Amino acid sequence: MAFTRPTGKHRRPTRRATRTGAGLAGVAALTTTGVVSTLASPAAAADAPAHTGFTEAIVIGHSLADRIDDQAAAQRLAAEDAAAEQAAVEAARLQAAEAKRKAEKKRAEKVRAARAAERERLNRYVLPVEGSYVSTGYQTGGSLWSSGSHSGVDFHAPAGSAVRAVGAGTVVETGWGGAYGNEVVIQMHDGTYTQYGHLASATVSVGQTVTPGQQIAVSGSTGNSTGPHLHFEARSGADYGTDMDPVAYLRGHGVDV
């Protein structure tokens, strides 16, 4: 047997009608509590208290956000300050390191310059009598010399003139040298020898190291001499007979003779 739906006023309400009724009931309830009337009436809203629960929550939210923003800004500034301070420290360190490097470089350059100057001073040669000239040449013949010729050169030197080492070396002999009178013999740094004769006196001693231009004696006229002057010889060895041309020797070391 088939079932039929009742008609008329006995029809079951639809879901839409049910929801509508519930909504109207809710509105009525809100109206009763005064919420809807407050929202619906501008005048009533104006008379309502300024601070509701919703407004206070919003204000608290903004205040918290502001504090967070302030803290973030403060942290950011602190980080920037720390970075700037670190950069300043690093810049100062680099500047100090660069200043130290320049100072060390300058000191090294001074040391090199001083060493170069000292090498130049020790390696230079000078005249045995400052401002003098050759009065008798090398291998000049005559009866004055036992070998028949002059084994060195004579430099003009009034008595008491300062006699200088022509270069750097070590004194190997001083004192009386027979025909040479009072003499000084120096072994030079290059292995050659120089001899200074007819001296009034020596001012250095055997074993003493001398430098170019250092005074080693006072000129005179001792030994086989006809008057005050300096007899100067250059030798390739320590023994007599190893003499070289003294003028060529000095010129070979840059001395203008």
Explained architecture:
It contains 5 helices and 10 strands, in the order ααααββββββββββα. It is α+β, with helices and mostly antiparallel strands and 257 residues long. Strands 1, 2, 3, 4, 5, 6, 7, 8, 9 and 10 form a 10-stranded antiparallel β-sheet that branches. The radius of gyration is 59 Å and the shape is rod-shaped. Residues 149-237 form the M23ase beta-sheet core domain. Keywords: Coiled coil. Residues 7-18 have a biased composition (Basic residues).
Features:
single chain; 257 residues; alpha+beta; ten-stranded antiparallel beta sheet; 19% strand; rod-shaped; M23ase_b-sheet_dom; Peptidase
What is the element layout, followed by pairings?
Elements: H1 15-33, H2 35-40, H3 42-47, H4 53-123, E1 134-136, E2 153-155, E3 162-164, E4 169-176, E5 182-188, E6 193-202, E7 209-210, E8 215-219, E9 230-235, E10 243-244, H5 246-252
Antiparallel strand pairs: 1-2, 2-9, 3-8, 4-5, 4-7, 5-6, 6-8, 6-9, 9-10
Protein name: Peptidase
Biased composition (Basic residues): 7-18
InterPro entries: Cell_wall_metabolism_enzyme, Dup_hybrid_motif, M23ase_b-sheet_dom
